[in-house]
Amino acid sequence: MKPINVGLLGIGTVGGGTFNVLKRNQSEIQRRAGRGIQITAVADKDLARAQSVVGEGVRVTDDAFTVVRDPDIDIVVELIGGYTIAKTLILEAIANGKHVVTANKALLATHGNEIFARAREKGVMVAFEAAVAGGIPIIKALREGLTANRIEWIAGIINGTSNFILSEMRDKGLAFDTVLAEAQRLGYAEADPTFDIQGIDAAHKLTIMSAIAFGIPMQFEKAYTEGIAALTKDDIRYAEQLGYRIKLLGITRRTPAGIELRVHPTLIPARRLIANVEGVMNAVLVKGDAVGATLYYGAGAGAEPTASAVVADLVDVTRMQTADPENRVPHLAFQPDQLSDTPILPMEEVETSYYLRLRVFDRPGVLADVARILADHTISIDAMVQKEPAEGEDQADIVLLTHRTIEKHTNAAIARIEALPTVSGKITRIRLEELGRH
């Protein structure tokens, strides 16, 4: 049977990994796919680098449009990244009847609805396992493996850079800026780490998982994002003393009022498996009504882990390309005309628990004032730690853990507490999730 011809757009870290995995495991992949899969054209601005990776027998060009328009190409793999030229090339490939495999989470989270609609019109597939959590097959698990379930919630460590930083801060007691510099030196963080440390990269991935889990359109613009740059080693230490770890979590949950879609630092009980995911590793916890809680763990980035997902998509597309488009697995798991208009819940309406750290003057009645304000806003205290002032100082930390409450109530209480004359500066607020009880 005629091999499947693949056009590869971008042969950087993941592109090179994809080429190498396909070449190394060629016979195994052919046995699984039922026919050969070969990269016959590569587009990259750095022609010399591209040629050095692919060697002889593969056409190399710096014009990606010649690849997406080539009638001999069956599948286009987009590994360029970004929102602009990548989107144009994917839409052009679709218009030319090509199936598409992409690792571009930012593009799908922001323009996925349009891209999937175009693909349906042309009867082609867009596969994107590599867009979320690198080599972990979480998209396939959500779209196929858990299809019998009503998904209740997802919580994921889905950004390796942030997880590495928090792991190092906890293990070594270092400040955020120090660990960020080390992450950049090791190549775990970009020169501009904004997307990673501010939670934007995680929000892209969470948007995709939420759409698949709950059968809703991509709505990245409604995701709440809060990064890790403001976290201190003191908060990490206090959390540890209380039996918790702090992780940057992406959380999406189905509630009667709407769907939560949020990324922020989160206290997790240290006994939970996901709390013990360290370094640059990723993990996604999915709760289904039938299966219960399932955990998916592995490398969330890197050349060959991500290539593993890209090649798996190539095999899937190869197997399914002759199938009636109506009988293929839908892009977002649910049939396109069955997507729901369930709203995304505003952050102020989300219900969760909280870690609150106050810097207070050592005066009688401080704790009573704080407790009274919390009670006024129907917030009950679950645990409390009161630190003694350091020698020669008249201020100390109070750390409170609350029971579950609505975010807007917490916001109102924090505003009143910060206005107390006995409270110094801003309150540190970190959300807390048990990831077991709810």
Please characterize this protein's 3D structure.
- By secondary structure, this protein is α/β, with parallel strands linked by helices.
- The protein folds into three domains: 167 residues, Rossmann fold; 162 residues, 2-Layer Sandwich (Dihydrodipicolinate Reductase, domain 2); 86 residues, Alpha-Beta Plaits (2-Layer Sandwich).
- The chain is 37% helix and 24% strand.
- It has 15 helices and 17 strands.
- The strands form two sheets. Strands 7, 8, 9, 10, 11, 12, 13, 14, 15, 16 and 17 form an eleven-stranded mixed β-sheet that branches.
- Helix 1 packs across helix 13, helix 5 packs parallel to helix 6 and helix 6 runs parallel beside helix 11.
- The mean pLDDT is 94.
Count the DSSP helices: 15
Average pLDDT taken over every residue: 94
CATH class assignment of the largest domain = Alpha Beta
What would you call the shape? elongated
Radius of gyration: 24 Å
Number of domains: 3
State the secondary-structure class: alpha/beta
Quick rundown:
By secondary structure, the chain is of the alpha/beta class. The protein contains 15 helices and 17 strands.
Question: What's the layout of helices and strands?
Answer:
Layout: E1 4-9, H1 13-24, H2 26-33, E2 37-43, H3 47-54, E3 59-61, H4 64-68, E4 75-78, H5 85-95, E5 99-102, H6 105-122, E6 126-127, H7 138-145, E7 151-157, H8 160-172, H9 176-186, H10 194-197, H11 200-214, E8 224-225, H12 233-241, E9 244-255, E10 258-269, E11 281-288, E12 292-299, H13 303-320, E13 351-361, H14 366-376, E14 381-386, E15 395-402, E16 405-406, H15 407-418, E17 428-432
Parallel strand pairs: 1-2, 1-4, 2-3, 4-5, 5-6, 8-10, 10-17
Antiparallel strand pairs: 7-9, 7-11, 9-10, 11-12, 13-15, 13-16, 13-17, 14-15
